[in-house]
Amino acid sequence: MNITAQMVKELRDKTGAGMMDAKKALVEVDGDMEKATEFLRQKGMASAEKKMGRIAAEGRVDSFVDANGGAMVEVNCETDFVAKNDEFKALASNMAKHVEELKPADVDALLATTCPSCNKLIGEALKEKIASIGEKITVRRFVRYEGPVATYIHNGKIGVLLSTDKEDKELMNDICLHIASSAPKFVSREEIPQAEIDEETRIEMGKEDLLKKPENIRAKIVEGRVNKLMAERCLLEQPFVKDPSQTIAQLIEGKLTIKAFTRYELGEGLEKRQDNFAEEVMAQVKG
Length: 287
Fold this sequence. Notes:
Layout: H1 5-15, H2 19-28, H3 33-51, E1 58-66, E2 69-77, H4 80-83, H5 86-102, H6 107-111, H7 122-133, E3 138-146, E4 149-154, E5 158-164, H8 169-182, H9 194-205, H10 215-233, E6 239-240, E7 243-247, H11 248-252, E8 258-265, H12 277-286
Antiparallel strand pairs: 1-2, 2-3, 4-5, 5-8, 6-7
């Protein structure tokens, strides 16, 4: 069968495969578009598995909020170049929407769930994207809250999801901006594990500037220092970034209660690629 340029274009548009791969697939199955799509899926999945051993610490944080609640995800890829691609941005956005709508228990459950829009397992659809985009892509983590929820995403690099007892969009947005900027770890003192307080106390007690002071004086100084450290980590005790004359607790008093929040910073705790992207491109050209 004669494989036309229009047939190749149609298959490329449908699958995101390269021109030569699309043509080869059509030749293999005598121009049958459905069989060619299946051929590329199988080929793409195989290449996707090979890519899964690579480091993926770039990517995007995204979120989705509706009347029932909201979700935030971190989706990783290998290069910042791909992270800025519209196809990858749409993928991250869709993942956040899937989490909110499907309410999976964890990432494995999410990937094993059928995508409402494409009628495929989300994990299989992700493998197709890996084949299309050409990099390892992983859904690293997500969080979901029910009830009044607000979110803020800063350039896809920092994301905040906030849960409160009442709806106050302007105030909730201000709190999200504050969390993104000030990076608190806890809502209040009650959430701080005693082990964290004990560890900070141990560190402060061993600092050189206190070693020559009497034990009782040193204990009081350390208590003050640790108290200050813990205050810096608690959202309610932090000075509001837009008006440092008041704390977040004072800002929200009588207006709403903060139930929980999550702050994601892209790639935190992950090993970063050391490759220079320009060098990588040059290496591919030479190869």
